[in-house]
Write a structure and sequence with these properties.
Layout lengths: L14 H13 L7 H7 L1 H7 L6 H13 L3 H25 L4 E2 L2 E2 L1 H5 L1 H18 L11 H4 L2 H24 L6 H11 L1 H14 L9 H21 L1 H7 L3 H4 L5 H9 L5 H8 L4 H14 L2 H22 L4 H10 L8
Antiparallel strand pairs: 1-2
Helix pairs in contact: 4-5, 4-11, 4-19, 5-7, 5-11, 9-10, 9-11, 11-12, 12-13, 12-18, 15-18
Length: about 350
């Protein structure tokens, strides 16, 4: 039987037609997104920031602001951006390193799963870009410098992923870098987030606009990472927060490990241990003692740190002095008697 079009009752719509009407109406507006939705997908991020670290990066921002004199509301936004990027990168790092602990607590992906944690970390990267809206000056006076804020973050995120990519490549292919290659990697990876903060401040500043603070930031970033590498293998505090010599379990070519391998290239003990990714103390204790006693890698790392610390203090003085920054370096000083 043929169905005539005029026989259709357009005013008596069934459930399917009502649903279609609802969909069509919603197409004209922005996608709906509730606070409940936001809270749900942000749980891994909310979890990691609920166990905060020492917030060293925010302290560095405050210290550099003694030179740059950026308004407080702007530095708060900059610190928020840097901490968002840092926490998001930690979510990814813990997955890539198969870590168990972060700041003494189970890592986020062990609770929320790998897929959700990856998505949240990527989402937070974009939220950090969105936060830039709070930095733009309304006047044309600073327009030239502030319009490059997105470029600053984009460039340093590229550097961060380049450094992380090399670190992972060396680990997964058991390729030991030279010390120079290692330092270049750290300059990209660890230095990137420190540079984000200071570069954003330099773009927002109306004071000392002709002074480049980036070389000092690079030096501090490398010092910070080499210190972290040493502490990972020797500090009881690191053991409680991340596990004993966790870098060995991750197969990481940290600075003392790179020195130890290259100091006695005919001995493959360290490479073999890294390949096995040891989780029990026996092999890790053996490797730590080998680095201490045979290759003297801890002693060598302490000398490097002391030399870098001296250079950092000299650079601070050259730039006009900064008591807050000096105090931060005091806190990062490594007492050799606590290591050997």
């Amino acid at each position: 039987m043929d169905l005539l079009i005029d026989e259709v009752d357009c005013h008596n719509k069934g459930p399917a037609m009502q649903l279609l009407d609802t969909i069509v109406e919603r197409l004209s507006g922005d996608p709906d997104w509730s606070e409940k939705d936001e809270s749900s997908i942000m749980e891994p991020y909310t979890y990691i920031i609920s166990h905060p670290g020492k917030d060293v990066r925010s302290q560095f921002i405050d210290a550099f602001n003694l030179w740059l004199n950026v308004p407080k509301d702007k530095t708060r936004s900059i610190a928020k951006i840097v901490n968002m990027l840092h926490s998001a990168s930690l979510l990814i790092d813990d997955i890539q390193d198969n870590s168990q602990l972060r700041r003494g607590h189970p890592v986020a992906h062990k609770i929320y799963g790998v897929p959700q944690t990856i998505n949240t970390a990527n989402y937070v990267y974009f939220l950090a870009f969105h936060e830039l809206k709070n930095l733009y000056y309304p006047s044309a006076e600073c327009e030239v410098r502030t319009r490059d804020l997105e470029f600053i973050i984009n460039a340093e995120l590229l550097n961060l992923h380049r450094g992380q990519g090399l670190d992972l490549f060396w680990r997964d292919n058991l390729v030991c870098p030279t010390e120079t290659e290692y330092v270049d990697m750290v300059k990209n990876k660890t230095g990137g987030l420190l540079r984000v903060g200071v570069k954003l401040m330099m773009a927002m500043s109306k004071t000392n606009v002709d002074i480049d603070y980036v070389p000092l930031v690079n030096l501090i970033g490398i010092f910070f990472q080499i210190r972290d590498d040493l502490m990972n293998l020797s500090s009881a505090n690191y053991t409680s927060n991340k596990g004993f010599a966790e870098d060995l379990t991750e197969g990481k070519f940290s600075f003392p490990v790179v020195h130890g391998i290259r100091a006695d290239s005919k001995n493959h003990q360290i490479l073999n241990v890294l390949q096995k990714r040891p989780e029990t103390p026996t092999l890790k204790l053996h490797t730590v003692n080998y680095l201490k006693e045979h290759t003297k890698s801890f002693q060598y790392t302490l000398v490097v740190l002391a030399t870098m610390e001296t250079r950092i203090r000299m650079e601070i003085t050259r730039l006009g002095g900064n008591e807050a920054l000096e105090r931060l370096i005091d806190c990062l000083h490594v007492d050799p008697t606590t290591i050997q």
